[in-house]
Amino acid sequence: MSYKLFIPGPTAVSAKTLAAMSQPMIGHRSSDFVALYNSIQADLRVLFYTKDPVYVSTSSAWGVMEGSLRNLVKKKVLCCMNGAFSDKWLDVAQRCGLAASGLKAEWGQPVDPAAFRRELASGQYDAFTLIHNETSCGCQSDLPALMAVAREFPEVLSIVDTVSSFSGLAIRKDELGIDVMLTGSQKALAMPPGLALFSVSKRALERAATVTGRGYYFDFLEFQKNHEAGMTPSTPVIPLIYALKSKLEDIKAEGLEARYARHARLNKTVRDWAFGRGFRLFPREGHGSVTLNCFANTRNVDLAAVNKELKAKHGFVIDGGYGKLKGQTFRISNMGDETDETMSALLTALDSVLAGLGVK
Ligand SMILES: *Cc1c(COP(=O)(O)O)cnc(C)c1O
Questions:
Q1: Residue 10: is the preceding peptide bond cis (ω within 30°)?
Q2: Nearest C-alpha to atom 7 of ligand 1 is from which residue?
Q3: CATH number, domain at 297?
Q4: Are residues 82 and 150 in the same domain?
Q5: Are 244 and 334 found together in one domain?
Q6: What are phi and psi of 123, to 5 degrees?
Q7: What lines the ligand 1 site, CB under 6 Å?
Q8: What integer pLDDT is reported at residue 359 of this predicted model?
Q9: Which of 78, 139, 192, 352 maximizes the CB count within 10 A of its CB?
Q10: d(CA 61, ligand 1 centre) in Å
Q11: What CATH number is associated with residue 51?
Q12: 98 and 143 part of one domain
């Protein structure tokens, strides 16, 4: 049975991207692979707004999220927490045996720059983790404001998760001074899951060189060494690199500004639709994500029933709330390859499902 996902990851994958994956395999130490790897670097740097290399990891984002901690934290890490993924990052740091503490905000509230400054000023930390776009509650923190604070503390390295915002809006790594910027394939890049992309500053590599216990699979120095040879440390998921190359062509053809504008426009289309039906945004005003919307279920709709009908009758799936927000919120993704037509088909279908359930 086939249906289309409008959940915030994995997102729907185009036929072109799927076809790109079914090319014959090449040896990962062959000159063909080196040519493939090197051919995507320039376009990746444009998307990351960086002069640094962009590494390709065969893992989901969490691999690099954990790896960043193991490569960079010597003293203590501050984990900015305002949703499921950022909350878990503190747990992961502790499971790695690192000294860590959390700067906690309610789910749906952005990370507060003033509280962030107070915490960093304590002098305890040599790194922090931050999620730009908390997918679990659709909350986008003010990254430029937070990075301005971070730049006041040059001894503290910044690890920024842009998993669900990357390529949906401009995130200027070098200009903002981000030390590790990471993303995954199955969100706004609209590729299947299994590939993580990350770019590391020179000073973060220098720090890593002084850290023991980096392990092997996510060792930043291994990534850098292999990068210089146009390769990855271990056998990468070559089909997804083919898919990435195809996707980078798509992004170039559309144009970055057009891509960002499309995400903003479709995001607003969904918001206007929901507001017109008496729902409100779950995250704080002015901090809604641009790649998805998380709505409070203010109409008390039976979200499980909505999704069941939506899938059975229309072949679409939305998200009925993440973790503790299940049933209280619902999320609709507009990231990736969506268009005015695909979003309006979803919203028309949702109207028909809601009417069938007696919600007007
Ligand atoms: C999806 C997501 C992750 C986790 O990605 P995995 O692919 O499951 O490792 C991390 N952070 C954010 C913000 C996400 O949206």
A1: yes
A2: 60
A3: 3.90.1150.10
A4: yes
A5: no
A6: 80, 10
A7: 9, 60-62, 85, 131, 133, 135, 161, 163-164, 184, 187, 193
A8: 87
A9: 139
A10: 6
A11: 3.40.640.10
A12: yes
Residue closest by Cα to atom 2 of ligand 1: 163
At residue 239, the pLDDT reads 98
Say how far apart CA 248 and CA 192 lie, in whole Å. Answer: 14
- The pick from 7, 60, 69 for probing ligand 1's pocket by mutation, whose C-beta has the most ligand atoms within 8 angstroms, reads 60
Ligand 1 centre from 186 Cα, in Å? 9
**Nearest atom (ligand 1) to Cα of 59:** 9
Question: In angstroms, what CA-CA distances link 240 with 196, 279, 280?
Answer: 10, 38, 37
pLDDT tens track for 29-71: 999 999 999 999 999 999 999 999 999 999 999 999 999 999 9
| Residue 360: per-residue pLDDT | 74
Q: Which residues contact 346 (CB under 8 A, 6 or more apart)?
A: 6, 316, 318, 332
Test site for ligand 1: of 59, 87, 163, most ligand atoms within 8 A of the Cβ? 163
- Residues 248 and 259 both lie in one domain: no
Identify the segments of the chain with pLDDT beneath 50.
none
Q: Which domain holds residue 309?
A: 4-10+255-356
Instruction: Give which of 35, 62, 13, 7 is closest to 240, Cα–Cα.
Output: 13
> Does 168 share its domain with 304?
no
Q: Which atom of ligand 1 is nearest to the CA of 186?
A: 7
Same domain, 124 and 59: yes
Please tell me the total count of domains within the chain. Answer: 2
